[in-house]
Automatic annotation (TrEMBL):
PANTHER family in alphabetical order: INTEGRAL MEMBRANE PROTEIN, MEMBRANE PROTEIN-RELATED
Top-rank lineage group of the source organism: Bacteria
UniProt xrefs under InterPro entries: Teicoplanin_resist-assoc (IPR053150), VanZ-like (IPR006976)
Name the UniProt record assigns to this protein: VanZ-like domain-containing protein
The VanZ-like domain, residue ranges: 68-176
Transmembrane segments: 20-46, 62-82, 102-124, 136-157, 163-181
Record's keyword terms, sorted: Membrane, Transmembrane, Transmembrane helix
The keyword NADP belongs to this UniProt entry's keyword annotation: no
């Protein structure tokens, strides 16, 4: 158990600690700007067509802000944290980066952890479809977008494994969000 902790959990904790200290504050303003842009665009383009104002409820606005905050943080972490041209390798072989040793799977675990918040927040937003498939596709699209930006800028390796593991993390986050909703609903039914 100590070996797994030293080889897998400690490096992940260290990486997350450094990322949080470095990029959390930097993500606040871009997330706020994204929320204002989203709200303005929604008002200008869609409000007349749809009578729904669900997107402007306080809970929806808070979840949208968290989603935009997460997206800004993920972009800082996966793209802006690296110098341009520092990583240019392409690896399209699925599971090529996986290892039998715990230490070799630190990046795999981090790729899964990176997308759990996306799936979680996607499921909690009241105006997104209650469909795992749509969340999965959205997670893949986001992951492919990040991989392409990394490839074009030379700020990250283009790897199939990243997309697969990010999609898996997205599914885990969605399931956690779904279970939270079920738990909340059952607690509300018991108390009401």
């Amino acid at each position: 158990m100590t070996n797994i902790f030293n080889e897998l959990f400690y490096p992940i904790f260290t990486d997350l600690h450094v990322a949080a200290a470095t990029y959390l504050i930097s993500s606040i303003l871009p997330a706020l700007l994204a929320l204002v842009t989203f709200d303005t665009t929604y008002l200008l383009l869609y409000r007349k067509k749809r009578k729904s104002t669900e997107v402007f409820r306080k809970s929806s606005q808070f979840l949208l802000y968290l989603l935009f905050f997460y997206l800004a943080f993920a972009f800082y972490l996966t793209v802006l944290s690296r110098p341009t041209g520092s990583r240019t390798r392409v690896d399209l072989m699925p599971f090529a980066t996986m290892s039998v040793r715990a230490a070799g799977n630190v990046y795999a675990a981090e790729n899964i952890l990176l997308f759990i918040p996306f799936g979680f927040l996607y499921r909690l937003l009241p105006f997104t479809a209650n469909k795992l498939g749509k969340c999965f596709r959205s997670g893949i699209i986001l992951s492919v977008f990040i991989e392409m930006v990394q490839f074009i800028t030379g700020r990250g390796y283009l790897q199939t494994d990243d997309v697969i593991l990010n999609a898996f993390g997205c599914i885990i986050g969605y399931i956690i969000g779904n279970q939270l909703i079920k738990l909340t609903d059952s607690l509300l039914l018991r108390s009401g």
